[in-house]
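Page 42, continued from yesterday. The earlier attempt failed because a stray header line got pasted into the input along with the sequence. Redoing it now with the clean sequence only.
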Amino acid sequence: MNFVEELRWRGMLHDMMPGTEELLNKEKVTAYIGFDPTADSLHIGHLCSVMILRHFQRCGHKPLALIGGATGMIGDPSGKSAERNLLNEETLQRNIAGMKKQLSKFLDFESNEPNKAELVNNYDWMKDYTFLDFAREIGKHITVNYMMAKDSVKKRLNGEARDGLSFTEFTYQLLQGYDFLHLYETKGCKLQMGGSDQWGNITTGSELIRRTNGGEAYALTCPLITKADGGKFGKTESGNVWLNPEYTSPYKFYQFWMNVSDADAERYIKIFTDLPREEIEALIEEQRKDPGLRPIQKRLAKEVTTMVHSAEAYEAAVEASQILFSKNAAEQLRKVDEVTLLDIFEGVDTYNIPRASLGGSVKLIDLLTETAPVFPSKGELRKLAQQNGLSINKEKVTDVNAPAEAGLLLADKYILVQKGKKQYYLLIAE
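This time it went through. Structure tokens are written below.
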């Protein structure tokens, strides 16, 4: 496959230095993308960069994933209006381990192929580099005028940042430039890739390589992904959509992709999956004929959830998302784990009830009017039950005087009450 053509039709190519495409067509190239280890998980904002490395490897080239263990201690000013918190070494090591585990799902680090992926950490070559040596050997090659001309620096100096730009952050592009030089000299790395906001830092690296040893090095960037309405991609009301299931459950992850707009789905299925062009074009045609079926969102959610989590996690997410409409809902509710249960019913009214109130002489009618006032009166509860409109854990209730037993608890803690077709309440036994 032709790597640049692959990126181009997928909408993943923003800019590249002259000669980049010719280099990639001429030889097997080693390239890298850097990731800041500011958390122990990647989020979907990183996915475009990860997919670029994946396509790069699929096209026969060698990808390097650089974890910024050293630069992460400083923080990149690009696109930021405030200086980042500095991380200590223990936190960095934990974050790096978490990120490598996730990257392994996208890249082949283990095979004996010459283009197997490698994970590198710039802390390894920066930790023993003294300030004086760095100033003498690297700093002298790049002028302040050159560094000041970069957009990431100019924006911060022109008043976009409340506190200006610290010297620490100003040195960031030199440090990132040195990463490129180091990988060029030790790994034969001739190409650095990244988001379009990284263009200034990447070209500083290629310029440093040219000025120190006359080498040729190249840059390629992808666009920053946004939503069709201009909003920030990957952000929800509760924050980032993480790849770590402890932070974003597979069910919520799946739901994120299912709920993207049709316009976004058409772009995202090209960017975030490996599906071939013909298959994607067929899905787009199918969606345009009958948008209500949402074939693109369904396939997008399947591909990305399976890739990030697993086929089993995807199947469980599909099953969980159909619980409310399933004929076997009562049975499925018993299988769902606590996190997914809470995700499915996020935002519904809840009542805390004492665990001791279950069992003994307490009846359902007492539980739902006195212990947890889901109904304002026993008369209203009886009337709804007679009309077949009351369900507990998705099972119809006809005998309101039945005992309220601990056996009703889902995940040993919750009781789901449904009034009519759409009103849900969650009782939480404590």
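Notes: The first strand starts at residue 15 and ends at 16.
Reminder to self: strip header lines before submitting.
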